[in-house]
Write a structure and sequence with these properties.
By secondary structure, the chain is mostly helical. It has a domain at 18-73. The chain has helices at 21-44, 48-73, and strands at 7-9, 16-18. Strands 1-2 form a two-stranded antiparallel sheet. A hairpin with a 6-residue loop joins strand 1 and strand 2 (16-18). The radius of gyration is 18 Å and the shape is elongated. The relative contact order is 0.20.
């Protein structure tokens, strides 16, 4: 059985990028929920700071959920060329 990852690991450093339509759907849903939430809070806020204070906790929760999904449905993260040491000392 072939495992299909929704997110591929970056070749250097930490992070993932979408590799399948499911991964892109998750990223687009994340962005849509963030925009909708911001606009919903902005309707009833009286100042910019009210909007940002109301949106910050939701943004952190949405981002945490996105990170968990990418961790569960993505490749494992390794430094270097997929686990090979790039900086060998001669």
């Amino acid at each position: 059985m072939k495992v299909s990852y929704w997110f591929k690991a970056h070749k250097s450093g930490y992070g993932w990028h979408p590799a399948t339509w499911q991964g892109w759907l998750i990223v687009l849903a994340y962005m849509g929920v963030c925009v909708y939430s911001f606009l919903d809070i902005d309707k009833t806020s009286h100042s910019v700071s009210d909007t940002l204070y109301g949106f910050a906790p939701r943004f952190l929760i949405f981002t945490a959920v996105l990170i968990v999904v990418t961790y569960l449905k993505g490749e494992s993260i390794t430094w270097g060329e997929k686990g090979k040491s790039q900086h060998k000392i001669p």
